[in-house]
Design a protein that fits this description.
single chain, alpha/beta, Rossmann fold, five-stranded parallel β-sheet, 9 strands, 45% helix, elongated
Amino acid sequence: MRIFIVDDDTDHAESIADVLETRGYQVELAASGEEAVARFHEADFDVVLMDIKLPGMNGVETFFEFKKIRPSAHVFMMTGYSVEQLIAQAVENGALGVLKKPFEMPDLLATLDDVKPRGGMVLIADDDPLFSHSLIALLESKGYSVETAATGQEALDKLAAGGVDCLLLDVRMPILSGLEVYLRMKEANRLVPTILVTGYAGDDEANRLGSMTQGLLVKPFDPAVLLHAMAELRQPPA
């Protein structure tokens, strides 16, 4: 098998390559998305290991270019950030709160009420369609307009189009995680009031995050709890 490693951390990439080559794999390296795309036009690979954080064209953008060149490409995304690190970084940089799945609906609604008056646009970015659809009727009944995004890239596209007043952002989504979405929004100076949703923090992590934010909401949730959480969340300073 031919393996293509795309990672700007050359020490990390070479260490992976050494291990793979001792097991009989053919390995090539690229240190940037642009370099990787140029090489992918020239050669076919059985598997690609793609770092999400790359200089210039990032790993997600590179992945989409690969899919245009070869739709059958097998790509594994890599990130040096643990979920806990990404959550902490997002909160430290202004994320309004963390909702731990499963969480209570009233907490979410209360949080949204405080972030943005009813009638605003809420974007639900979550790859679980049942979860997203369960929120739509509830939020619309409270006067919100609602849109959904099933991937991080779709969420970024809808945010770039404008009109979103509040974002409910799942930490774990395919290809581009919710926290990567949040960090890219921050880098682009396009942050909107954001509530992180996670079902993966352990009890200790949940308690730590709860002390840093307005609290945690865990799926499945009671609508009353969501409303309460939305009421407690404070609008960030302009």
